[in-house]
Amino acid sequence: MENLSFHDGNIFNLLHSRSTEPSHDVDQRMQLHSSLVRRLSQEQELEGHQGCVNAISWNSTGSLLVSGSDDLRVNIWDYSSRKLVHSVETGHTANIFCTKFVPETSDELVVSGAGDAEVRLFNLAGLRGRADDDNALTPSAMYQCHTRRVKKLAVEPGNPNVVWSASEDGTLRQHDFRESTSCPPAGSAHQDCRSVLLDLRSGAKRALADPPKQTLSLKSCDISATRPHLLLVGGSDAFARLYDRRMLPPLTSCRKRMPPPPCVNYFCPMHLSERGRTNLHLTHVTFSPNGEEVLLSYSGEHVYLMNVNNGVGTMQYTPGDVANFFSLSNILHDVESPPQVSTTQNGFHRNGNAAMLKKCTELVELAKSSLEEGTDIFYAIEAANEVLDAHSNDIESALRHECLCTRAALLLKRKWKNDAHMAARDCQNARRIDASSFKAHYYMSEALQQLGKCKEALDFATAAQQLKPSDADIVAKVESIKRDLQAAGAEKKEEPEGGTGRVLSLSDILYRSEANSDSSHDMSRSEGDQSDYDEELEVDIQTSMSDDEGGDPDSNAMRGCLNLRIHRVSDDNKPIENSGDNGSSGTASSSQNDRTSYQPEGAIDMKRRYIGHCNIGTDIKQASFLGQRGEYIACGSDDGRWFIWEKQTGRLMKVLVGDEAVVNCIQCHPFDSVVATSGIDNTIKMWSPIASVPSIVAGGSAGPATANVVEAMESNQQKLSRNRENPLSVELLQRFRMQEFAEGNFHPFECTQS
């Protein structure tokens, strides 16, 4: 794939066009051209923090960079000299997770949010004339109305008066600097800040069909640069939400829990919308530069691209669509919008050309050869991506069908996380082109078998056998699925009718814990909520512990490897029936009534996914658009690398070593070909296209160049797969331990170092 050209053209042609006809569009395309991306290398390391750097952000002109750290300082860096200009002692008492320049204030106002639940505003003019070691700065405004960690701040381009803060307490607040310059701490006698723009303390959904009832612990938010009335938020469930601020109710206080307001759109890949597990959550959401797309970064998952509005390449689906997706009879509703068939010539649409046809045909043949030989599976999938994602509207349906089936087979052979789901999508799209396709039915049965949906798999396998009765492979497939069904039936019969009780996952317990915990000091718990933990809890813990977002290494947080299993047992030692997915009080029948009366919204499905990194350990890991046109996608990883993909095809562009442990933050310069990254290290790395030779890999200060990119990605996928069944973030376990300790139910236990 190294010799495959990229879609932004030849840089020399761009340079020539800029010299003859200067234009802003050419400058934008030049900023991060593919030839420059592939030459990115570490240019400099900015030293000045004494803790993990959790937040970096450029000012509007790119002349300054602001950073926030576990050392409780906000640093200001000069871009041209790469020097530290100011280091502000903020007065925060916990890790700083977010910081921004306030627009249109001559870069003198800086705002920060931290784990102490506070938002602080600083005027850097107060540091003028001081000695270099005199860095303590009194906040110009201090907002203490949040009750949990502030994870993200948002500002509106051109608006110097307002900042928005997203917190794990389930609220997004709007702070207007023209009003009160501070507020009393949450829970105090006179605390009545009317700053709540979004009250999502009853906003989390376990699945698309479920009513929102639990606290949506907000992790990220963003405001569209092109349409500032659009607000995007993501948090502790699988669904990103788009709101129109013009349609939201007036600002309120947090003294009364409000129902979540209706949103413009939900965003969630269809295969993630029904998992119903609290460990699946978003760590970062962002708009594309033109505001037409959104990018979602999931913990324990991949990065996904979606259209803001339902358009070509995506669809809006409902819970019914999810339920019917794996059905043999479901061939009518598009998952991807296939190209409109027009008059073709030589297998190509009229707007195609012979060179493109030859290129696509060769790529499909390359992919098929890799499938037969079982080699270079990753690059074969990228070849198929090039055909389907870059030229789908040009190629004739027969070639598209062949490529869809080939990619499905390759995905099923690779078996990385969610590959079976992606293969199923390809098979369904292939069936829409050819309803009697043997390959589409055969590979669909294999995908469903890998997903454990044996009944549906048998339907597709039987249909494939009817298409080719004498094919030995499908005969063996049918028998294999029948054996799986028999084994599942026998296992079900062997389950005891009584026993010690139903085993619940830790995520179930924590989800109920989240539902029952107070979002603020001024809210009381109902009697029904108090009864949720009356039953016995048996805990046998073994989980992987690490410092969340690079916490204080000297803290008393538990580390090591623990395995957690929780049994809930009733007084009469009978299995306890779950009263519903929402974890609220009440009987099963009342929960069922709530579910029946609730009319679930639809959600916008994925357009593309970006794969190779690992996002498990931290809740601030960003996925970002690179460049003014957003033609590339970048994301950090738990293995200390950061990855760059071509947005249009998902093709891997570059892998760089950027940290000794974890890369969390990636921010592209507004105009130059420079990217800033940060993570668990105490430094900020600056990357620019200074490498003499373009390549897919490059080393950094943390280590040498990676010789085998696929090997590194496979290692990351293994981590994600091990995290699949009962993944447990450090933050959730710590919350569980803190609550149990506060209620007198937690007892020390031993842990074994991993």
TrEMBL record:
**Per its UniProt record, what Pfam families does this chain match?**
WD40
Q: Where are the WD repeats?
A: 46-87, 656-688
Top-level taxon: Eukaryota
InterPro entries cross-referenced by the UniProt entry: DCAF8, TPR-like_helical_dom_sf, WD40/YVTN_repeat-like_dom_sf, WD40_repeat_dom_sf, WD40_rpt
Q: Which SUPFAM superfamilies match?
A: TPR-like, WD40 repeat-like
The segments labelled Disordered in the record are 514-533, 569-598
**Polar residues composition-biased segments:** 579-598
Q: Which UniProt keywords apply?
A: Repeat, WD repeat
Basic and acidic residues composition bias: residue spans: 519-528
Which protein is depicted? Anaphase-promoting complex subunit 4 WD40 domain-containing protein
